[in-house]
Every structure is written in structure tokens, then in C-alpha cells.
Amino acid sequence: MKYFGFLAAALLALSMAASPASAEAVADSDTLLVLFSMTGNTKAISDAILAKIDAETANIEVATPYPADRDTLLETAKQEINDNFKPALKTRVADIGKYKTVLLGYPIWWSNIPPPVASFLADHDLTGKVLVPFATHGGGGLGQSVASIEKLAPNSEILKPFAARGGSRVSGADIDAWLAENGLLEK
Ligand SMILES: Cc1cc2nc3c(=O)[nH]c(=O)nc-3n(C[C@H](O)[C@H](O)[C@H](O)COP(=O)(O)O)c2cc1C
Question: What is the pTM of this model?
Fold first, then answer.
């Protein structure tokens, strides 16, 4: 029994060491859901989507964390977006080639995609893939975010994005309708 405990701990340590750089293999799916969410609003939408479709998941994590203080974060983000800065990521999906469809979730930052999402798109070749954006915002809508995605993934087919105000109640029916419209509803 003791031995099995040790084995389990060793396996857990191994899997944890391997996990940050790769997509989590929750299912053998040709769909990947990639998420960047600072305060959980976009994660809530992501969870609602994952309740409806089979997808593997990857979280976009920056190498150097953003400041926790909101005002400092706002300034840092504004500066980075103005400079077209792409921060280094901890996240790297090594087997990106195996996915046909990539759902990409993010919060709107200054009417745009957050810089880590720009980094993700620049770091991964999404040629020939279907790209499905979803975002939360504070009331300003999608802004230029989809145009920015198009620029960074010029050889992907971008389907209809989903947008919701962060923290608002999004019904399963809304998610269903959007997924169905994009031909993604499986169950
Ligand atoms: C740096 C920063 C910039 C933001 N810029 C905008 C904006 O331009 N328009 C808008 O509607 N909301 C903006 N917001 C609000 C977020 O988009 C909103 O709170 C979102 O739901 C956060 O998602 P998250 O919890 O997944 O990080 C901004 C938030 C931050 C932190």
C-alpha cells in the first residue's frame, strides 16, 4: 500500500511537470480550446462551452505575471498594446498540428486582444485551421479583437465570435445557438 502511494505521487509529479507546456489530454479530440482569463469571466464562458463539446484545453500563461493592481494592469496593458508587444509565454502547444478547430477565449483589453493572446497566435501556426473566438468585455463589445486575430492568423478560417459582458448570465441556450451556428455542436 505504501509503495502504491509512492508510485501515485511519483506519477502525479511527472504529469504535473509535463502539464504547463502541453494541452491537457482530457480527450482525444481534434478540437482545442485555448483560454486566457485574468479574473475568471472568460473562464466561465469557457466552462459553459466545455459542457457542450469535447475539446482538449490549454491555458495561456505569461512567463512574467501581470500586476495584480488593476490600475497598474490597465497601464501596463495599454503600453504593451500600443507597442505591439508580445510577452513571452509559458504555454506552448507542441502538437498544435493535430487540431482542426481552435476555440480562442480572451477578455477584451483596450478594445483588443490581450498581448498574451497575440503571443499565442504568433507562436503557433494555425494555417488551415478553423478559429473560433469568444470573449468577455466590460460593455465595449469585441472592438478590434477579431481584426487583430485575422492579422495574426491570416491562413485560418475565422468563424462567428461569441461575446458577452463579463459576469453576465449567459444561458446554455445562447452557447448552444452559437455553437450550432458554427457547426460545432456535438452533444
Ligand atoms: C487591462 C484591461 C483592459 C480592459 N479594456 C476593456 C475595454 O477596452 N473594453 C471593455 O469593454 N472592457 C475592458 N476591460 C474589461 C474586461 O474585458 C472584462 O472585465 C472581462 O470580462 C475580464 O475577463 P477575465 O475575467 O476573463 O479576465 C478591460 C479589463 C482590463 C483588465
Answer: 0.88
